Structure formats: structure tokens, C-alpha cells
């Protein structure tokens, strides 16, 4: 039998726990009250808005090398350096403790993040919260950011130009936070942080076996799967669980 703590971790990660059939107590759901249907409402025909073709915006990397945290936040909020500013609701700067030892970096905001202005708030965000909880961390303990600060339309992968344009913001965030460990969530973040174009599985394995550092700073980078990918791929949740255990081990060893 698994001990209680282990079971709790697996349950938190939504990993199925196998239990002998005779141990399962049948649970009968209480009857739900029957609601009467609301009266029909007249629906007005919708008029489709006329969408004007977007004006092309030249892409050029932003210059934020020497600015502080508040100014950086303002620069992100008003940035129009690449065409993504035309389709965003708002920028997504990042959230958490600006003095954190642990920095989590994802790919780019999705629809929920674009609406709320905060990274990892949709279903993937809920899974990330559970993953953090499994190693006794909360969002407030760490800092969470993305490679891009604006949502790519239809959640497509960021283009090379968009990454070139936007990553000075992230580099400045890393320089100001000075984390001890960076967790790259997914291949887009892992390839940027490790400056290596290998497949996700290879980057993950390499970062588990060797101490890989971000831009020769000595800050360790661990690559693991993006929570949005884990929602689609149950098989990889076991590997993500192994990664969480390694992160927990590093946190304990370094006293973070
Ligand atoms: Fe600026 Fe980055 Fe948004 Fe492009 S994605 S407009 S570079 S903040």
C-alpha cells in the first residue's frame, strides 16, 4: 500500500491510484431537485462587426537593460514592439514574489491569461497550482512569467521574431529577480533558456542528469512539461511527478 503522503501527492497531480475493487465503498449521489425551465427569451439577430485588416508593425527588440522593476512593468504594459499588441486584451507581465528563489517560465499567455492579465490562470494554471502544492509551494512563494507578454492569436507557438522582440523583458526580469533555480515549463521556454533546439524529452533528460545553467550565470535550469501538455497527455504526468520530486530535492538541499 502507498503511504498517505504519497497518495496525497498522486491525487493532487490527478494521477490515478489503483485500489482493490473490494475496498471501494459504493457512493450513491443524492437526488437533485428538478428545476422548472425559465421562460423563453427573445434573441436579437447579431450584427457582425467589420474587422479592419491589421496594420503591420515592424518588429524590433525592446531596450530595457538598466531599468528597475516598476519601470519594466510600465514598459511591458505599453509595448507595441511586435504585432501581437494589436490583438491582445492586455499584457501579462508575471506574478508572484519579485525576490523569489524559484522562477517558473512558460511560453505565452492563453485566452484566460489575456483576459485576466495573469499567467497560468486557466485549466493549465489550476494544474500548475496542484503541482506546486504537491511540493509544498504556493504561487506567492515563487515568480511566474512567460517568454511572451502578449497572447499569440489562436494560442499558436510564438514566432522567432516575436521571441526576439519580447525576450529582453524576460531577461531583465531574470536579472532583477536573481533566482537560484529556473523551471522551464515546456519546449518553447526550455529551448530559449538553455539556448538549445533539442526536443522537449531530450532537454528534460539532460537538465535532470546535468546541472545546466541559464546563459552561463550559474542559475540552474530544469526543463519539465508544460501543464497544458500534461492535461492532454496523462502518460507524461508520471514524468512530471519525477521532476517535481527533483525540484523538491533541490529546494531542500539548497535550503530555498
Ligand atoms: Fe511587446 Fe512582447 Fe507584447 Fe510583442 S509580445 S507587443 S514585444 S510585450
Mean pLDDT: 87
Elements, N to C (H/E): HHEEHHEHEHHEHH
Global structural class: alpha/beta
Helical fraction equals 25-40%
What sort of overall outline do the alpha carbons produce when their principal axes are compared? globular
Question: How many angstroms separate the termini?
Answer: 32 Å
Q: Major sheet: size, sense and barrel closure?
A: 5 strands, mixed
Number of separate helices: 9
Beta content: 5-15%
Give the spatial strand order of the biggest sheet: 1-3-2-4-5
How many beta-strand runs?
5
Task: Write out the distinct hetero groups bound to the structure.
Answer: iron/sulfur cluster
* Radius of gyration over C-alpha positions, nearest whole angstrom: 22 Å
Unreliable runs: 24-34
Structure keywords:
256 residues, 9 helices, 5 strands, globular, binds iron/sulfur cluster
Task: Give an account of the 3D structure.
The protein has 256 residues and is α/β, with parallel strands linked by helices. It is built from 9 helices and 5 strands. The chain has helices at residues 4-12, 69-77, 111-116, 123-134, 160-177, 187-194, 200-209, 227-232, 237-254, and strands at 95-96, 102-106, 143-146, 181-185, 220-224. The chain has a 5-stranded mixed sheet, with helices on both faces. The two termini are 32 Å apart. 35% of the residues are buried. It binds iron/sulfur cluster (SF4). Iron/sulfur cluster is lined by residues 76, 79-82, 84-85, 91, 148-150, 162, 165-166. Iron/sulfur cluster binds next to helix 5.
Amino acid at each position: 500500500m502507498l503511504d498517505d503522503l504519497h497518495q496525497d501527492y498522486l491525487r493532487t497531480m490527478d494521477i490515478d491510484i489503483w485500489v482493490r475493487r473490494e475496498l471501494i465503498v459504493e457512493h450513491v449521489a443524492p437526488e437533485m431537485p428538478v428545476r422548472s425551465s425559465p421562460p423563453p427569451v427573445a434573441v436579437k439577430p447579431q450584427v457582425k462587426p467589420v474587422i479592419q485588416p491589421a496594420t503591420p508593425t515592424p518588429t524590433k527588440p525592446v531596450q530595457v537593460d538598466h531599468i528597475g522593476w516598476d519601470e519594466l512593468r510600465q514598459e511591458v504594459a505599453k509595448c507595441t514592439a511586435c504585432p501581437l499588441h494589436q490583438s491582445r486584451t492586455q499584457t501579462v507581465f508575471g506574478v508572484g514574489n519579485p525576490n523569489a528563489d524559484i522562477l517558473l517560465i512558460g511560453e505565452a499567455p492563453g485566452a484566460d491569461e489575456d483576459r485576466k492579465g495573469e499567467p497560468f490562470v486557466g485549466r493549465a494554471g489550476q494544474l500548475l497550482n496542484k503541482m506546486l502544492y504537491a511540493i509544498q509551494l504556493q504561487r506567492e512563494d515563487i515568480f511566474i512569467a512567460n517568454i511572451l507578454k502578449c497572447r499569440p492569436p489562436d494560442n499558436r507557438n510564438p514566432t522567432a521574431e516575436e521571441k526576439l522582440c519580447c525576450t529582453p523583458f524576460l531577461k531583465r526580469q531574470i536579472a532583477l529577480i536573481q533566482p537560484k533555480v529556473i523551471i522551464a515549463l515546456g519546449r518553447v521556454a526550455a529551448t530559449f533558456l538553455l539556448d538549445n533546439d533539442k526536443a522537449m524529452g531530450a532537454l528534460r533528460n539532460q537538465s535532470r542528469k546535468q546541472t545546466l545553467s541559464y546563459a552561463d550565470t550559474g542559475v540552474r535550469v530544469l526543463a519539465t512539461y508544460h501543464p497544458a501538455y500534461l492535461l492532454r497527455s496523462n502518460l507524461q504526468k508520471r514524468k512530471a511527478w519525477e521532476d517535481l520530486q527533483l525540484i523538491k530535492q533541490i529546494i531542500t538541499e539548497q535550503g530555498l
